[in-house]
Amino acid sequence: MCSPTLSKRERMVSQKLIEGLFGGGHSRSLAAFPLRVVYCRQERTAGDMPVQLLISVPKKHFHHAVDRNRVKRQVREAYRQHKSLLWQSVDDHSRLLVAFVWLSNRHLSSAEVSQRVASLMRRIAEKVAVKAEKEDGQI
Questions:
Q1: For the chain, give me the number of helices (H) and strands (E)?
Q2: FRET partner for 56 with CA separation of 20 to 30 A, picked from 6, 71, 73, 94?
Q3: pLDDT at residue 66 in the model
Q4: Helix (H, G, I), strand (E, B) or coil at 27
Q5: Distance between CA atoms of residues 49 and 18, nearest Å
Q6: Do the beta carbons of residue 50 and residue 96 sit within 8 Å?
Q7: What interhelical angle do 110-138 and 65-82 show, nearest 10?
Q8: CB atoms within 10 A of CB 6
Q9: What pLDDT does 1 receive?
Q10: Which DSSP string corresponds to 29-90?
Q11: How far from the centroid of its chain's Cα atoms is residue 67's Cα?
Q12: How many other β-carbons are positioned within 10 Å of the β-carbon of residue 15?
């Protein structure tokens, strides 16, 4: 069930998961400037959430923490509003690790950020659904 909140369990905090997402060869990447999303599908164990999220805004782009926090807040809110797109595409036996990385050094309006996040999430949902269908066909 997908509630319109963003709980602590939905956030990716494990260093092992983060290294697997960025360092492993199984992750995929999409971009909708100023965002890049890196995602990976894994087996889900008991107690795991279907989708786990990480948001990264590099200090290279925004030197002041208040600016980085604003961008993270915008991305978090956009994800929260559209997260049902991803939750519907994940089956009961897998989970999706998703990382949003900010690529620009300028602010955008919340509406623009929301539009880009929704676009990326739709594209991820389509790709995950296609991959799941292929895997089901092979079994």
A1: 4, 4
A2: 94
A3: 97
A4: coil
A5: 15
A6: yes
A7: 50
A8: 14
A9: 54
A10: EEEETTEEEEEEEEEPPTT--SEEEEEE--TTT--SHHHHHHHHHHHHHHHHHHTHHHHHHS
A11: 20
A12: 8
Fold observed for domain 8-138: Ribosomal Protein S5; domain 2 (3.30.230)
Residue 34's alpha-carbon distances to 46, 75, 134, in angstroms, are: 35, 11, 31
| Alpha-carbon gap, residue 66 to 29, rounded angstroms | 27
Q: What six digits make up the tokens of 41?
A: 């599908």
Question: Given its phi and psi angles, is residue 47 left (phi above 0), alpha (psi -120 to 50 degrees) or beta?
Answer: left
Distance from C-alpha of 121 to C-alpha of 47, rounded to nearest angstrom: 23
Place of tokens 């786990």: 52
Domain range list for the chain: 8-138
Q: Which residues contact 72 (CB under 8 A, 6 or more apart)?
A: 55, 57
CA distances 97 to 43, 58, 59, 88, 100, Å, are: 11, 19, 23, 14, 10
Asked if omega into 34 is within 30° of 0 (cis), the reply is yes
Nearest to 97 by CA among 128, 76, 60: 128
Q: Which two tokens stand for residue 99?
A: 């990382």
Would you give the DSSP letter of residue 55?
A: E
